[in-house]
Amino acid sequence: MSEGSSRNSRKGRKAGRAAGRRALISKSVQSAQHCLEEQDYGTAYAHFLLVLSLAPELRDDFKETFQYTLLKWAEELYAINRSEDLFSCYEQALELFPTDDVICNSMGEQLFRLGFRDEAAGYFYKAVKLNPRSLDAKENFYRVANWLVERWHFVMLNDTKRNLMYRKAVEKAVQAGCKTVLDIGTGTGILSMFAKKAGALRVYGCELSKTMYELACEVVAANQMEDGIKLLHMKSYDIQIPQNIPEKVSLVVTETLDAGLFGEGIVETLIHAWKHLLLKPKPKEEACGDGYGRVIPAGAVIYGMAVECQEIRRHHRVGVKEVAGVKLGEELQFWSPVPGNHRSDDVTEPYDTEKMSRVPGGYKSLSQPFQALTVDFNSLQDLESIVAGKSCSVSVPVLEEGQLDCFITWFVLHLDSENSLSTGPSEETCWEQAVFPVQNVPDGGYIVRPGEIIEVAISCPDCYLQCDLARVYKDGELAGGAGSSDQSENMVLENENELCDALASLHTTSLQDVARERCVLESGEIALLNNVLYHENFKAAMEKVVSSLSPKENGFTWDRSTASAANDPLYILDVSEGFSILPLIAAQLGHVKSYSSVEKPQHRVALEKLLEINGLAKDNLVFWLSQLDADGDVLQRPNLDKLWSLIILDVVDICGLMRQEVMEKAAIARCLLQSGGKIFPQWIIMRGLLIESHALTRESAVQGTDPTLGFLIAPSINRFKVPVHVFLNLSALPCTPLSEPVDLYKLDLMNPCSNYNSNTEIKVRVCKSGHVTAVSFWYHLYLDEDFSLDTSGETSHWKQAAFVLENPLDVVQGEELLLDVQIQNSNISMTLNRAR
Ligand code: 44T
User: Fold this and answer.
1) Does ligand 1 have an atom closer than 6 angstroms to the CB of 367?
2) DSSP string spanning 576-639?
3) pLDDT in tens, 212-233
4) What are the pLDDT digits (tens) for 172-188?
């Protein structure tokens, strides 16, 4: 058949169209590829879109090229702020490839960096579901999940005792006539559901977090209560009557509390609620509660206790005068960031929180618990006195001799007159305690003895609980606090008025001591400075590198070039995060030029002061970041004709996980080393062991419907569970070890060959029968064959981590198991299998 005649027949026309389509497709493919070569990603993207819409059969072939083009084009759109176009591109791409995890994950990343974190979480979650092996998507999902749903939700929902207590109190109030209920900070909606189930007529719940609000909607629907509970995505302060809720309520239930009681803003929240959202309070003389407003919890009593605790001490006070040959000196003082240095614009609380029962090394009570403060949540006047800065001082007799390291506080929450729960340190509770380290302690520590009285100053600046040492006295006289050389260092106050004045200024002014340089360090940085073993190991290993690289006195003949090389110092770079004195230790080795990458001006001043104290010349230490251009990379050669003798990388974060991009950094570092130069650590071994830990299990997911008293909450919130737990103190974690520690993984920073994206299956022998629920892990950092650091050691400033297994396994002693460990970037995944 000739071309001419076919064009006229129907079949011919169809064939012609098909040919035209083919031609268009192949032309577009050519254009797309040409544009790609020219890096014109926008046009390439448009061509590919056309091709893949016209020819679905090509989708598989072009998938990867298309993904690449999309990602590149999205980068450009992002750079020029065309975010709407950016998202349209992704939506188009997802229409072509609705089950593609890479596009889904990338969409999530774009949403995340534009601030749409909830939406991002949705796409990451979808990407993980589409491809459970995608470690990138998993890592992204876990990161946002941790952000969006705080981990304490799991612990609280698993606390049956707390749930029962709240249910009882709510039931009692509703039965007593409170028929309209507002749940402030509804979280997953559990308290609202208690109220509805108890027979409340109308229940409103407000929640300021978008993710939690959406979760609550899902939970309430899953329990078929959506008709009875109205949920609002708003802060209680913004609720308007009748716009948002039609009426004032007779009951407010809330658990917007933190370890320090007021830190979640309950005082301000309830003052507002009493003024705008609640019916009037019941007058005292009235017997019947009908028609009045009330709050659950009704009130609380805060208790405090004086405590000796070595673990808290080493995180809040530099207790050493010299570290690996570096004198710290009187002229320099290190401070921990709580509480005296708290600023009102800080987002964090002015206290630490700890589960005291899980502090490594334990603690010793130096006093009886004392009552620090009481608050009646049903009294507007009481609430307002707290905003007004309610303060008092309490005299506390010393019961046991010891170092006064901190005060801890907890509270007894009176839900109503019959139902209370305590967040105390020896209680079985999901709660932590608030910790107030005693500041500005003399060198030998502050020793208190039986017979002495500690005067504790309690106050509420900015509605945050605050607990300070005012003074210690004995028989009416000031006590020395043995070991204290300088009384003026302690805040000693003579009477109550003075106390209040001083408290008012305590949080703004520093003591008038000008001769001393002050440097505020994070608690992890203080623990690091206290870690003598760490610094001594570094010193010893650095000495070896220096001596191996320094030109020998005898040995070979001197010529001009070796002579000049001999005069050249060795260059050592420390790229530790945060404060580090390793460059000073290096500088003391002689013939070394040290480079520090500290960022904070305060840290720099402190290091300069230490140089002076230790009699080192200023030019021994270079502040590397100030030498680089604004966006200069830390890892570059010291100067054109020099390379580094040693680069110190900070590979493990104090949370207990490897930092991101360690291998990438090591790869660059290797290129910048002189021959014989080293990277510290040279290699890293990840160690781990099988454990049975119900505490970890309770922190990782809601355990069915039992703890939530029959309500279906677990399926919804458990979507946000994250298997890796960080910031653990393994030595104090309630758990049973079921195997010996084993090497899980080796990362060689000096010899990369075997490292990348390793998947390994490790044989582990069970040493005790039980139920393996998790694998705890930590790291050994090898500076060289002789000197290594253990991130789980007693003096470690690092915390440790654990991986909670998706499928726990019952095991018997002697059994051999296979642990599959996958590592990509800083993301870890583990599966435990029986040996085949
Ligand atoms: N921490 C306990 C906090 N909210 C508990 O968005 C104990 C911490 C804890 N919503 C370890 C262990 C524990 N209007 O979802 C949150 C929050 C919301 C509000 C609307 C308001 N005015 C507020 C104020 C807060 O309420 C929920 C609970 S607040 C914190 C509770 C297990 N670490």
Assistant:
1) no
2) -SS---HHHHHHTTSSEEEEE---SHHHHHHHHHHHHHTT--GGGEEEHHHHS-TT--SSS-SB
3) 999 999 999 999 999 999 999 9
4) 999 999 999 999 999 99
Question: Residue 809's CB: how many other CB atoms inside 10 A?
Answer: 18
CA–CA gap between residue 157 and residue 570 (Å, rounded)? 57
Ligand 1 touching residue 256 (CB < 6 A) = yes
Residue 509 pLDDT greater than 50, yes or no: no
Q: Is 349 in the pocket of ligand 1 (CB under 6 A)?
A: no
CB 623 within 8 A of CB 598: yes
Distances 281 to 116, 277, 292, 632, 768 between C-alpha atoms, Å: 41, 12, 5, 63, 59
- Under 8 Å between Cβ of 415 and 475: no
Q: Are 405 and 309 in contact (CB under 8 A)?
A: yes
- What is the 255 CA–ligand 1 centroid distance (Å)? 7
Nearest to 355 by CA among 263, 430, 257: 430
Cα 192 to middle of ligand 1, angstroms? 15
pLDDT tens track for 750-805: 987 766 555 678 999 999 999 999 999 999 999 999 999 999 999 999 999 999 99
Structure tokens at 332: 């320099």
- CA dist 490 and 513 (Å) reads 12
> Which residue has its alpha carbon closest to ligand 1 atom 27?
185
**For the CA of 153, the nearest atom of ligand 1:** 32
Q: Indicate if the pLDDT at residue 290 is higher than 90.
A: no
The pLDDT value recorded for residue 337 is: 79
